[in-house]
């Protein structure tokens, strides 16, 4: 586990805090130098403005608006944690027998006491955030605890990844390179914002369907949010482009090893079975999702008062770059070096996480190529920590300013990192109370004996609550597929259809449920309220559900 050696930052002047945490903008109006290029005495005269992706708070309510304010992401997850803890008292505990790979055997479910008294359950609730961070799952009993022996179950890797991303982006913004680069890009695309949104969503959707690109999108908010603001859009456009773009791709996974690959292997079929139906779903659902976001983007750009996310102080000033007729200041050699570094770092991140052998051969268990890295969150966190140091050296930032900026960036991203930990803590409560297998058993009973035309739809429906309890696609597949796939044989449908219906349920739920780090961490990074995101996404979710049902019914007819 990596540790941060915190540099004391108390007692700094306002000038030092402004320079150290990179809050200044690179440009005001086009043609005027940004704060990064002003003398310190001039910077001190201006009130410090928050960074466009500074995490922690939801957008402030508009002036004059009163009444109920939806709680923050941290509060929502705290309430979900309490609700799940209470429900676990009333859901019978039980378990399946498992094979050597840990997959449950059909028909082996039995009631089994959880072994937890009231005091033990209180202790589980008390430790749920800790288990969500670095809980370890015992290889013998399956229980998650901080002092157990087995595999890491908590989200420590993702937690540190978010903090490292925060430090890197804050250091980059402190150089003024991204501010100026975004300003120039916004000026060039001032009349082609729709093209930018389409490109971002299409790339994320493609990465999602090929390799399950989801949690990795948390690193892109620092780039896309300020860019969308500079183009005259709001934070919801950026949030929808990222979450819905990548999420639709994962929903329609074609060769995603972490979803389709794991599920196909557990169902004893090849990764290519059913790929034609999944590819058609990906094309249609991605096009519909992009069209939905573009429609909202056009509306909010023409009438900002109709924004569902609201605006933070300084948000609308970002659009001044787009509206100004003058050419923004040119990039210096230092700015270009920083921007090239940012592009290379993010490109290398994408390259390092893709399982190239499985994606190119279509075999989920294909041996990795010699040049394939297979990195995960621990390595990515180290990558961004090193990249932060590299940017500091390239710009000759100096040791004192660099450490202040670095620590400030880590502090700004603690809130979304904690959201991820709490979301993982909810699943540890379900696991330790032994109610997850009970939910799985109820699904087994619900789909048995269903007509072939309804079987695929029932698989989709009954997997929805299980996807809420197990946001991990690979974990969900490992639990559900060994039971659901054999049932397809009795219903007279293809096992590949079960895989498609299962991953559609998992992907659809993970577009909005508060137990997934992609949603709660993403809206925290974008500073968008969870209630406002639900209001934005609800019509699309209904439309996607109808399209999914149509494709599953078509697949059942064809098989």
Give your account of this protein's structure.
With 559 residues, the protein is mostly helical. It is built from 24 helices and 5 strands. The strands form 2 sheets. A 3-stranded antiparallel beta sheet has the order 4-3-5. A two-stranded antiparallel sheet has the order 1-2. β3 (136-138) and β4 (144-145) form a beta hairpin. α5 (156-174) runs parallel beside α16 (377-394), α19 runs antiparallel to α20 and α20 packs antiparallel against α24. The longest helix has 29 residues, at 530-558. The termini are far apart. The model is unreliable at 1-65 (pLDDT under 50).
Q: Which key features would you list for this structure?
A:
disordered N terminus, 62% helix, 2% strand, 559 residues, 24 helices, 5 strands
Q: What count of helical segments does DSSP give?
A: 24
Strand content: under 5%
Low-pLDDT regions: 1-65
How far is it from the N-terminal to the C-terminal residue, by CA?
50 Å
Using DSSP, what is the number of strands?
Answer: 5
Mean pLDDT: 79
Structural class based on helices, strands and sheet pairing = mainly alpha
Query: Order of strands across the widest beta sheet?
Result: 4-3-5
Radius of gyration: 24 Å
* Major beta sheet summary: 3 strands, antiparallel
H and E order: HHHEEHEEEHHHHHHHHHHHHHHHHHHHH
Share of residues in helices: 55-70%
User: How would you describe the shape?
Assistant: globular
List the helices and strands and how they pair.
Blueprint: H1 14-20, H2 40-43, H3 73-87, E1 94-95, E2 110-111, H4 118-134, E3 136-138, E4 144-145, E5 150-152, H5 156-174, H6 177-188, H7 193-211, H8 221-230, H9 235-251, H10 257-266, H11 275-302, H12 315-318, H13 320-323, H14 333-353, H15 356-361, H16 377-394, H17 399-412, H18 414-432, H19 436-447, H20 452-469, H21 473-491, H22 495-509, H23 517-526, H24 530-558
Antiparallel strand pairs: 1-2, 3-4, 3-5
């Amino acid at each position: 586990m990596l540790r941060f050696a915190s540099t004391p930052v108390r007692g700094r002047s306002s000038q030092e805090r402004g320079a150290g945490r990179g809050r200044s903008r690179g440009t005001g109006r086009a043609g005027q130098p940004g704060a990064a290029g002003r003398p310190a005495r001039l910077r001190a005269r201006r009130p410090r403005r928050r960074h466009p992706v500074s995490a922690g708070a939801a957008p402030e309510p508009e002036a004059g608006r009163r009444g109920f304010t939806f709680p923050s992401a941290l509060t929502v997850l705290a309430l979900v944690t309490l609700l799940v803890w209470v429900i676990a008292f009333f859901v019978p505990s039980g378990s399946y027998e498992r094979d050597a790979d840990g997959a449950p055997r059909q028909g082996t479910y039995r009631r089994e006491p959880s072994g937890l008294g009231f005091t033990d359950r209180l202790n589980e609730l008390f430790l749920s955030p800790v288990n969500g961070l670095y809980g370890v799952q015992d290889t013998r009993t399956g229980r998650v605890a901080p002092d157990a022996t087995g595999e890491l179950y908590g989200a420590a890797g993702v937690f540190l990844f978010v903090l490292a991303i925060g430090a890197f982006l804050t250091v980059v913004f402190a150089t003024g390179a991204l501010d100026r680069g975004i300003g120039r890009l916004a000026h060039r695309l001032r009349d082609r914002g729709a093209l930018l949104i389409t490109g971002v969503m299409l790339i994320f959707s493609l990465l999602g369907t090929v390799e399950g690109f989801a949690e990795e999108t948390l690193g892109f908010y620092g780039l896309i949010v300020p860019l969308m603001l500079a183009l005259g859009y709001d934070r919801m456009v950026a949030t929808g482009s990222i979450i819905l773009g990548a999420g639709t791709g994962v929903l329609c996974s074609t060769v995603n090893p972490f979803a389709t690959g794991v599920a196909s292997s557990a169902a004893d079929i090849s990764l290519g079975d059913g790929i034609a139906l999944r590819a058609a779903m990906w094309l249609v659902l991605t096009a519909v999702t992009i069209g939905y976001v573009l429609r909202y983007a056009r509306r909010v750009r023409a009438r900002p008062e109709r924004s569902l996310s609201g605006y933070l102080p300084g948000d609308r000033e970002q659009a001044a770059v787009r509206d100004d007729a003058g050419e923004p200041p040119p990039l210096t050699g230092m700015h270009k070096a920083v921007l090239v570094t940012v592009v290379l770092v993010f490109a290398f991140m994408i390259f390092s996480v893709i399982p190239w052998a499985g994606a190119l051969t279509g075999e989920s268990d294909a041996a990795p190529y010699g040049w394939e890295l297979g990195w995960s969150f621990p390595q990515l966190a180290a990558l961004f920590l090193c990249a932060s140091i590299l940017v500091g050296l390239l710009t000759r930032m100096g040791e004192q300013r660099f450490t202040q900026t670095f620590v400030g960036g880590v502090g700004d991203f603690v809130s979304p990192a904690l959201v991820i930990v709490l979301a993982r803590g909810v699943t540890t409560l379900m696991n330790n109370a032994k109610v997850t297998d009970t939910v799985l058993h109820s699904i087994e009973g619900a789909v048995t004996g269903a007509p072939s035309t309804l079987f695929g739809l029932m698989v989709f429906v009954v997997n929805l609550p299980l996807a809420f309890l197990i946001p991990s696609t690979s974990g969900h597949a490992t639990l559900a597929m060994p039971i659901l796939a054999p049932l397809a044989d009795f219903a007279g449908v293809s096992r590949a259809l079960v895989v498609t219906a299962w991953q559609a349920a998992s992907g659809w739920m993970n577009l909005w449920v508060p137990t997934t780090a992609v949603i709660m961490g993403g809206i925290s990074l974008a500073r968008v309220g969870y209630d406002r995101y639900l209001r934005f996404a609800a019509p699309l979710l209904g439309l996607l559900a109808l399209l999914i049902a149509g494709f599953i019914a078509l697949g059942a007819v064809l098989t």
